[in-house]
Design brief:
mainly alpha; Seminal Fluid Protein  PDC-109 (Domain B); Lysozyme; three-stranded antiparallel beta sheet; 10 helices; Lysozyme-like_dom_sf; disulfide bond; carbohydrate binding; plant defense
Length: about 290
């Protein structure tokens, strides 16, 4: 090679260098959560172009319903990080969680919440992006109200502890008369609730109620159990209230309506509403209608 003519060397190198790849397509108009898109409309989102297969609104590409078809990278350069807060698809990022609960007890970890999500995948995973964010905000707002901003793990009024054993139940209170006090994000209480939640989750909480204050994932799972399966004094589960468009007020009714709704305790209701409005703002969406009960 040392004696090869310069022109010949240049020609050899030209053959050896691979052809450059074609440049990425131009990016279409960016997706907008407030816009309505008809089938065939193309938008850009997170460095890709996406085409709607049918009518859609509020569902960010790639979405969960299959409405968006990926047309490939656009714009060239480095693809920006996804705006979806978490790779798993959960609509609340750890940074947003920390913003919501700056003074929380270290027991209530974000990872504990994430680990609990598998028990109820429909939670914050149903409907449009707006619906999913509203449900997450509604759940966390009620949780914040119940625990003083995720500060309290157990019920603070210890005088109530012996009162949560319904001995008429056939299974009784095997963990002890005073073992079923409020614990966790929605303050699970009473032996029959520990039994029902444990049965649903596959955990023997009737005999081991202390797990709710010792295992963060278990604590979050009990809150999600109530949210997704129990109507309480209301007429629907909090989950159904949010995904069905009935409004945040119905979640209050299902959690503590007998003591707070119908004008019984407007200050407590307003406390929940204030938290909800702050949390939807953190998540970048709107609160919707019917905030009060």
């Amino acid at each position: 090679m040392a004696g090869l003519a310069a022109s010949a060397l240049a020609g050899a190198l030209a053959v050896a260098v691979p052809a450059t790849s074609a440049s990425a397509a131009e990016c279409a108009t960016p997706w907008n959560s407030s816009s309505v898109y008809l089938g065939g409309t193309t938008v850009s989102h997170n460095g890709h172009n996406w085409t709607a297969r049918w009518w859609t609104q509020n569902e960010a590409p790639p979405g969960t319903s299959g409405v968006w078809s990926d047309q490939g990278a656009c714009g060239g350069g480095t693809t920006p990080p996804p705006t979806d807060p978490d790779p798993s698809g959960f609509v609340v990022s750890e940074a947003q969680f920390n913003q919501m609960f700056p003074n929380r007890n270290s027991f209530y970890t974000y990872q504990g919440l994430k680990a609990a999500l598998s028990a109820y995948p429909a939670f914050a995973g149903t409907g449009s992006d707006t619906v999913r964010k509203r449900e997450a905000a509604a759940f966390l707002a009620n949780v914040s109200h119940e625990t003083g901003g995720l500060v309290h793990i157990v019920e603070q009024n210890t005088a109530n502890y012996p009162h949560y054993c319904d001995s008429s139940q056939p299974y009784g209170c095997p963990a002890g008369q005073a073992a079923y006090y409020g614990r966790g994000p929605i303050q699970l209480s009473w032996n029959f609730n520990y039994k029902a939640a444990g049965d649903a989750l596959g955990i023997d909480l009737l005999r081991n109620p202390h797990l709710v204050e010792r295992d963060a994932a278990v604590a979050w799972k009990t809150a999600l159990w109530y949210w997704n399966t129990q109507s309480g004094p209301g007429t629907m589960t909090p989950h159904n209230a949010m995904v069905g468009g009935h409004g945040f007020g119905e979640t209050i009714r299902s959690i503590n309506g007998s003591l707070e709704c119908g004008g019984r305790n407007p200050a407590q209701v307003q406390s929940r509403i204030d938290k909800y409005q702050r949390f939807v703002q953190i998540l970048g969406t709107t609160p919707g209608d019917n905030l009060s009960c």
